[in-house]
Each structure stands twice: as structure tokens, then as C-alpha cells.
Amino acid sequence: MIAPLSHFLAQATADAAPAPGPFGGQMMFMLPLFVMMWFLFIRPQRKRQKEAEALVKALKVGDEVVTIGGIHGVITSLKEKTVVVRIADTVKVEFDRSAIANVAKKEELAAS
């Protein structure tokens, strides 16, 4: 006797593995991807941001600095949110503290 087609279809679906839940298969790939993105992009950016904040807090009069725009000078006075930088004998310019990109170290000054 020939079994009806619906019997074969019902048996085929019963033997198939259950489908993963809504978070099953995709989450197994998304979680390691997110962790990798965090280590490659977010963590280093936060580290650079903390270093820049520490640099701005440690500024003092007499430091040789380089601004984000590439202007070299010496800090002559500090204010709450700005610094005054002497870039030539008679030229002083006021910058935001966040515009300071680098502070020259004593070793670098001695080498030049």
C-alpha cells in the first residue's frame, strides 16, 4: 500500500533538527564580533582620550607646547579654559586648553 504524501512530509519535518531560537545562531557570531570591535576601536580611543585629558591637566607655565594646528610656543599663562602661548618674541596667542596636542619633554629640548 502507498502511504499518502502528507505522511512523508510530516515525518520529514519531525526528523529535522529544531530551528535555533531568535538569538541562537546570530548571537554566536555577533558577540565575538562586538568584543573584537571593542578591543580594536573603542578601548584605544578611550585610552587616547584619557591621555589627552591628563596632558591638559598637567600643563604649566614654561612648558614648550605644540598645538593641534602645528604652532610651537611656550606657555606664558594659564586660565581656567585657555592658555596663552608665546610663539615669537612679541607675539602671544590665546588657545583653548584642548588645542594643545603635545608638550615637549626636557630630553627633547636638550637634543634639539
Secondary structure: elements and pairs:
Layout: H1 5-15, H2 24-57, E1 64-67, E2 72-78, E3 82-88, E4 91-96, E5 100-103, H3 106-111
What is the end-to-end distance?
Answer: 99 Å
**Widest sheet: strand order?**
4-3-2-1-5
Largest sheet, if any? 5 strands, antiparallel
What's the rounded overall pLDDT mean?
Answer: 81
Uncertain segments of ≥5 residues (pLDDT<50)? none
Strand tally is 5
Number of helices: 3
Task: Tell me what the CATH architecture of the largest domain is.
Answer: Roll
The level of helicity is: 40-55%
Which band does the percent of strand residues land in?
A: 25-35%
What does the model show?
The protein is of the alpha+beta class. The chain has 2 domains: 26-58; 60-112, SH3 type barrels (Roll). The chain contains 3 helices and 5 strands, in the order ααβββββα. The protein has helices spanning 5-15, 24-57, 106-111, and strands at residues 64-67, 72-78, 82-88, 91-96, 100-103. It has a 5-stranded antiparallel β-sheet with strand order 4-3-2-1-5. β3 and β4 (91-96) form a beta hairpin. It is rod-shaped, with a radius of gyration of 31 Å. 4% of the residues are buried. The mean pLDDT is 81.
